[in-house]
C-alpha cells in the first residue's frame, strides 16, 4: 500500500503527455463552469466526463482511497448541514414542494432531495479533476504551468516546493509511526479511535514544527543564492503547447460557454424540471 496520501505518479497516456498549463486551465475553466450552473443535465455530463478521464489515467484505488474517504465524509457532512439549516430551500428554488417524508419542519421533499443531489454532483465534477491534475502533473511542470499563465515565478516556485515537500513529510510520518508500532505503541485499527488519534497527534505535531524549521532553512538558502532577483526565469520542465494542449484548452472554453448558455436558456442558474 502506498504511504502517500496524494502526489505525482508516473504513467503513460494522453493525460500524462499534456502540458501542465493546458491541464491547469482545463481544471480551472471546467470547475468554474460546474460551479456556475445547477443544471443537472450539464453537471451530470461533466461528472461522467471526470470519472472517464479518471479511469483513463489508470490510477489505483489504494493511491487515493484515504483522500477520497476524507472528501466523502466532508461532502456528506456538508449535505447534512445544508439540509438541517434549510430543509425547505429546494421548495423555494423550484416553486413546489412534494413531501416524501413528513416530519414537521424537517420534512423531506422531492425538491430538496433534487437540490442536494445537484450539490453532490458538483463533487463528482471537480474532485476527480483536481486529483487527476495533481497526480498526472510533475511538481516542476506544475510550477512552469503557473508561470505560463502569468503567475509570478516566485509563487510558482513556492507551490512546486510545497508539492515536493508534502510527500516527504508523509513518508517521514509513516516511517516514525511504523517505528513506534515496533516499540509496542498500537496505532493500527486494533486500537481504539481515541488512542489512535492521540498517538498520531504525538507524531504529527513534532513533525510539523520540525518542518517549519526546514522551511526557514530552505528560505534562507534561496535568499543567499539571490532567488527572486530577476523578473523572469527559465524552467527545466517547461513544455511548449502542442495541438493536443490547444484542443484541451478549446474544449474547456466550449464547456464554459455551454455553462453560460444554459444559464441564459434556463433564465437562471437552476434547471427546474417541475416548471
Structure notes:
- By secondary structure, this protein is mainly alpha-helical.
- The protein has two domains: 171 residues, no CATH class; 70 residues.
- The chain has ten helices and two strands, in the order H-H-H-H-H-E-E-H-H-H-H-H.
- A two-stranded antiparallel ribbon has the order 1-2.
- A hairpin with a 6-residue loop joins strand 1 and strand 2.
- Helix 3 runs parallel beside helix 6, helix 4 runs antiparallel to helix 6 and helix 7 packs antiparallel against helix 8.
- The longest helix is centred in the last third of the chain and has 32 residues.
- It starts with 13 loop residues before the first helix and ends in a 10-residue tail after the last helix.
- The mean pLDDT is 81.
Q: Can you describe this structure in just a few lines?
A:
The protein is an all-alpha fold. The protein has helices spanning 14-17, 20-36, 40-57, 61-85, 89-94, 110-136, 139-148, 153-182, 193-224, 243-265, and strands spanning 99-101, 108-109. The protein has a two-stranded antiparallel sheet.
Largest pleated sheet: 2 strands, antiparallel
Q: Given the helix and strand composition, which structural class is it?
A: mainly alpha
Number of domains: 2
How are helices and strands ordered from N to C? HHHHHEEHHHHH
Transmembrane segments: 24-54, 66-86, 113-135, 246-265
Organism: Streptococcus loxodontisalivarius
Keywords: Membrane, Transmembrane, Transmembrane helix
Subcellular location: Membrane
Amino acid at each position: 500500500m502506498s504511504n502517500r496520501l496524494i502526489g505525482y505518479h508516473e504513467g503513460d497516456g494522453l493525460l500524462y503527455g499534456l502540458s501542465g498549463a493546458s491541464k491547469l486551465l482545463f481544471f480551472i475553466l471546467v470547475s468554474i463552469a460546474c460551479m456556475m450552473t445547477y443544471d443537472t443535465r450539464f453537471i451530470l455530463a461533466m461528472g461522467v466526463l471526470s470519472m472517464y478521464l479518471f479511469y483513463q489515467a489508470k490510477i489505483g484505488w489504494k493511491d487515493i482511497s484515504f483522500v477520497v474517504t476524507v472528501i466523502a465524509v466532508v461532502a456528506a457532512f456538508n449535505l447534512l448541514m445544508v439540509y438541517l439549516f434549510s430543509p425547505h430551500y429546494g421548495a423555494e428554488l423550484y416553486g413546489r414542494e412534494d413531501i416524501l417524508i413528513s416530519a414537521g419542519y424537517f420534512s423531506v421533499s422531492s425538491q430538496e432531495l433534487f437540490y442536494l443531489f445537484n450539490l453532490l454532483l458538483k463533487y463528482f465534477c471537480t474532485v476527480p479533476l483536481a486529483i487527476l491534475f495533481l497526480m498526472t502533473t510533475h511538481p516542476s511542470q506544475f510550477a512552469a504551468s503557473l508561470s505560463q499563465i502569468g503567475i509570478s515565478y516566485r509563487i510558482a516556485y513556492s507551490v512546486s516546493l510545497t508539492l515536493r515537500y508534502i510527500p516527504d513529510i508523509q513518508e517521514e510520518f509513516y516511517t516514525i509511526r511504523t517505528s513506534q508500532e515496533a516499540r509496542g505503541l498500537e496505532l493500527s485499527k486494533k486500537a481504539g479511535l481515541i488512542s489512535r488519534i492521540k498517538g498520531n497527534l504525538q507524531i504529527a505535531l513534532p513533525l510539523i514544527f520540525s518542518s517549519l524549521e526546514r522551511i526557514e532553512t530552505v528560505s534562507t538558502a534561496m535568499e543567499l543564492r539571490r532567488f527572486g532577483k530577476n523578473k523572469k526565469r527559465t524552467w527545466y520542465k517547461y513544455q511548449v503547447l502542442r495541438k493536443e494542449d490547444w484542443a484541451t484548452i478549446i474544449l474547456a472554453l466550449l464547456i464554459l460557454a455551454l455553462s453560460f448558455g444554459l444559464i441564459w436558456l434556463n433564465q437562471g442558474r437552476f434547471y427546474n424540471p417541475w416548471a
